[in-house]
Design goal:
Layout lengths: L3 E10 L2 E6 L2 E6 L2 H5 L7 E10 L4 E6 L2 H11 L6 H10 L2 H9 L3 H5 L6 H11 L26 H11 L4 H9 L8 H14 L1
Parallel strand pairs: 3-5
Antiparallel strand pairs: 1-2, 1-4, 2-3, 4-5
Helix pairs in contact: 2-3, 7-8, 7-9
Length: 201
């Protein structure tokens, strides 16, 4: 099992991240919350990882904090929740926000996340209530990277692609991304702003 990886960031294309470790490129999938705090391409980062072995592939998932990985692993134990949905949940809210939704049985907030209907939201509340003790209960809101780096010309397209990968329909993803001011913003900043607006509705 690969539990930790440290390498140079070669590509950031949410939800895909490419790290080069001693000449080998590792493709890693990560929630959008991870991308908010990543250093620029070319710099080194250490990720806590979870290796998911399927019949057709070995998929590596990366996180910056143990609480994120703990939540991810617990979500995979919920009936009907796969890795893609778990990533969508972690992209849409932090561990503290998710714990609050479960404790308060806030099905409305959970159903705002892509791919989660009423029955899935109910299962999350029922099955995760007893597992919250395994998840770090204190986590602050993740701040958008303030380095002031200008976004590449296709930042909007990258943001739309990432939202589609999270489960939003193409038309909805375009509407969400275009509804925010994206001039000079990174794809991660556009995505985060779009998710915040969607969550407030």
């Amino acid at each position: 099992m690969i539990g930790r990886i440290r390498g140079e960031i070669v590509l950031k294309q949410p939800p895909l991240l490419l790290l080069e470790v001693q000449g080998i490129g590792y493709e890693i999938e990560a929630p959008l919350s991870v991308f908010y705090d990543l250093p620029p391409v070319g710099e080194t980062v250490t990720l806590i990882t979870h290796l998911l072995i399927r019949d057709d592939a070995h998929v590596l998932y990366g996180f910056l904090h143990e609480r994120e990985r703990a939540l991810f692993r617990n979500l995979l134990k919920v009936s009907g929740v796969g890795a893609r949905m778990a990533l969508a949940i972690l992209s849409g809210m932090d561990a503290q926000g998710f714990a609050r939704c479960v404790e308060q049985e806030d099905l409305t907030a959970l159903k705002r996340l892509p791919g989660i209907g009423h029955k899935t939201a109910q299962r999350l509340v029922v099955e995760m209530r007893d597992r919250l003790a395994q998840i770090a209960s204190s986590t602050g809101a993740v701040a958008i990277d303030g380095r002031g780096t200008a976004a590449p010309p296709d930042a909007l397209s990258e943001a739309i692609s990432a939202l589609i990968a999270l489960g939003y329909k193409p038309a909805e993803a375009q509407r969400m991304a275009r509804s925010v001011d994206h001039d000079g913003h990174s794809p991660e900043a556009i995505i985060r702003a779009a998710l915040q607006i969607a969550g407030a509705r």
